[in-house]
Amino acid sequence: MKTEGGSDAAKRRAGERAAEEVADGFVVGLGTGSTTAHAIRALGRAVDDGLEIRGVPTSFQSRQLALEVGIELTDLDAVDGLDLAIDGADQVVDDPDAAAHGALIKGGGAAHAREKFVDAAADRFVVVVDPSKLTDRLERSVPVAVLPDAHTVVADRIRDLDGEPTLRDAGEKDGPVVTDSGNLILDCAFGSIDDPDELATRLSRIPGVVEHGLFVDMADATYVGTDDGVAVRRY
Ligand SMILES: O=C[C@H](O)[C@H](O)[C@H](O)COP(=O)(O)O
């Protein structure tokens, strides 16, 4: 599980605050990462106390944690929709005057493809972060999931967009990171991103791209955990 950056207490406050919004009978999208893990654990405790919910996991990681804490799971194609999705982010634009206010970069844990369609299916999508994720402009590398055979041609197209792609390495094991769906990840540096919506459209048009980690105009709120509370941004 990715845990670097931000205080764990701040992540826990954000996750637990989002979990408080889950009511009896809800179908809940269960995001991926160290911040959402706090929400999943809080939901597990609420289930122990009698809350009846079903979860739709966004990754192997969130599925395993949900099973561990006793949350009943279902599939997206077995439900009419989701009441709420709770998910983390690697960066969030926090500037009410910017067109991109509330835009996200996700996929630090390579889960963004599944996260995107689960989060998009929810009536409400709540982002949970610590303050280290807030920024005026998106500037982290954008994770792009690609079909394995396409990684070199997609990398060429990313360079055409003035991006610098790096195939994500698995680290301890030889070879690249392989996502839960069998795809590879190109981490693409674009510097400071002027127009996330335009870049998102260009990335989506590249043949061989499965999904990119720009989430534009998707979030309904961001809960920012701090060391002594939670600040709420609504969009
Ligand atoms: O692929 C992973 C996800 O997009 C995570 O939600 C994101 O990386 C944030 O994770 P964390 O809460 O651990 O920083």
From TrEMBL:
Signal peptide: none annotated. It comes from the Archaea. The active site is at E115 (proton acceptor). Its EC number is 5.3.1.6. The keyword Isomerase applies. Pathway: Carbohydrate degradation; pentose phosphate pathway; D-ribose 5-phosphate from D-ribulose 5-phosphate (non-oxidative stage): step 1/1. GO terms for molecular function: ribose-5-phosphate isomerase activity. The keyword Nucleotide-binding does not apply. Gene3D superfamilies: 3.30.70.260, 3.40.50.1360. GO terms for biological process: D-ribose metabolic process; pentose-phosphate shunt, non-oxidative branch. InterPro entries: NagB/RpiA_transferase-like (IPR037171), Ribose5P_isomerase_typA_subgr (IPR020672), Ribose5P_isomerase_type_A (IPR004788). GO terms for cellular component: cytosol. It catalyses: aldehydo-D-ribose 5-phosphate = D-ribulose 5-phosphate. Keywords: Isomerase. Coiled coil: none annotated. Substrate binds at T32, G33, S34, T35, D87, G88, A89, D90, K106, G107, G108, G109, K133. PANTHER family: RIBOSE-5-PHOSPHATE ISOMERASE (PTHR11934). Belongs to the ribose 5-phosphate isomerase family. Catalyzes the reversible conversion of ribose-5-phosphate to ribulose 5-phosphate. Homotetramer. This is Ribose-5-phosphate isomerase A. It comes from Natrinema saccharevitans.
